[in-house]
Amino acid sequence: HWGYGKEDGPSSWYRNYPVAEGNRQSPIDIVPNEASHDRDLGPIMTNYDHCTSINISNNGHSVVVEFNDSDDRSVIKGGPLDNPYRLKQFHFHWGGKGHEGSEHTVSGEGFASELHLVHWNAVKYKTYGEASTAPDGLAVLGIFLETGDDHRWLHMITDVLYMVKYKGSITDFKGFNPNCLLPSSLHYWTYLGSLTTPPLHESVIWIILKEPIEVSEKQLGMFRMLLFTEEDDDQKMRMENNFRPPQPIKGRRVRSSN
Ligand SMILES: Nc1nnc(SCC(=O)Nc2ccc(S(N)(=O)=O)cc2)s1
Ligand SMILES: [Zn+2]
Fold first, then answer.
1. 20 to 30 Å CA-CA from 224: which of 54, 156, 235, 255?
2. Which atom, in ligand 1's list, is nearest to the CA of 194?
C-alpha cells in the first residue's frame, strides 16, 4: 500500500499509479507574478452555514472530517466553477517539528500545513466516486496554515484528535461549520490539477487562497500525535510529513482572482 515513507512514499507512487507522471498533477509551486490575472474570474462563494459535519476519522494518511453531501446545503460556487460543488470532506497535510508541511508552495516557499476542503460536482455526476475520475468532477479549496497565534476555532478539532489517534479510528463530529477556518480574504489562485494522493485522479479544479490562517505551534503539535499505524500495530509511526512535493507544471496556466 502507499504512504509517505522512504519505500512507499511519493517517489514510488508511479509504480501502482502511473498517472503520477501525468500532465495535470498536484500540488505545484505557484509563482504569483507568472499567474495571469483574469478580470472575468469572479469571486468564489462558500455557503457552509447549514452544512452538516458527521464524523472525524484517521484514515492512515490524514485526519478527515466528513459531511453529509446528500443535498446542496453546503457548497462552493463562483470563480472558475460553472456550477455549485458540494462539500464532501476536509483534511490536512502537515510537516514535522519546525519543518514545512504544505503541499502547494508559493515562489518555492512552503507553509507549516495545508487544509483541503474537497467538493464534488453533483450537478453533472451522480456520485462522488464518478465525479472523482472526471476532469471537472472535483473542486478543492486549499488554505495555508502558518504558525503564529492560537487559532480560536481549530481547538474544536485538536481537542478531539486523541479520539482518532490510530489508523481506522472514527468518532462523531457534528455541528462543525468550516466557515470558521476561512481567512478574511477569499482572493485565490486557480489551476487544473489532481488528487495529491493515490489514486491521483486528474479531476480537480484547485482554488488556493492567498491569505493563510494562523495556528499555534502547540495546535500543530497536536496533529503530530496522530499515528499512521493501527492500534494493534506494535510499530507506532507518528503521523507527520504527510505531504506530496510540488509536481511539474507541464505548461499549465495558473490564474489569479485579483
Ligand atoms: N469511489 C471513490 N471514493 N473515493 C475515491 S477517491 C478518494 C478520495 O477522494 N481521495 C482524495 C485524495 C486526495 C485528495 S486531496 N489531498 O485533497 O487532493 C482528496 C481526496 S473513488
Ligand atoms: Zn489533501
1. 54
2. 18
